[in-house]
# Entry
Amino acid sequence: MTNIRSIDLNLLSAFDALYDERSVTRAAKRLALTQPTVSGMLLRLRHMFSDQLFVRSSHGIVATPRAEAVAGPIKELLERAHLLVSASSFSPVKAEGTIKLMASDYIQHAVVTPLIGALRRHAPKLKVLVAPRQELGVTERMARGEIDLYISSRDVSDPDLPSLPLYRDRFVCVARKRHPFNGRRLSLRELCKFDHLLVHPTGRSMWGPADEVLAAIGHKRRVAVAVPTFHMLFELLAADDFVAFVPERILRGRQIEIKKFETGLDIPPIEVVANWHPRVSDDARHVWLRQTLAAVAQQP
# Structure
């Protein structure tokens, strides 16, 4: 059994880099060490854990089950060690590093873009990396430190992680300005007569919140085209006489000329929240980031 007094945090930092990078060469570059030095640290890690930890493959190194099991606790331990020796305050003006966000294209437009504007004003040295929303593995990526904030609608958020409610957004019915319907209110019959556009990020469904509401009252619309992003939806909307239900915030700053219709449909609003891993809940930089995000999300 390894004596706790013999554990070297530098070795755990090397493990963390090897696990994240899956390459001795990339881990050495990240740690600002030579490749032979990191290889030597890996030998010591193998002795410490009585396990190979990482084995060579055609694409670098692959973690063993033992390495997978300890990766999360090691990263959390390193984060807490960093908090112990770092200053308790956070200075946005002096802050450096990369903020890593994950969000759908709707949320990128509605809140991530203005958040980046706020970061540029208050923390100009910070860099921002934005990843598209994915269905699987989000929690694991947050545990590995690959994502600082996952911003999503509540229905696809992780209920087991800390969360911050940001805002609620309502659906509005829109069409291009030249759409042949000239009234302000679409009856259910008229609504269901037109071809509809729908955004479904996975590309596996042509059913959305409006369809749920219509089905409950015995109606069905014709979704002619389902696309993975709102960017594509607005391109199609501008080119043809489609109708679409979209979150109202997605309309901010859009150059496309559109008109809105009243429909009387009571579609449940989107509740947008931010998730993060509990290991960074008390980190001063992360606390400031969440406060900045909350302030941006409340802007009209």
About this structure: The chain has a mean pLDDT of 91. The chain has three domains: 4-72, 97-162+271-297, 171-268.
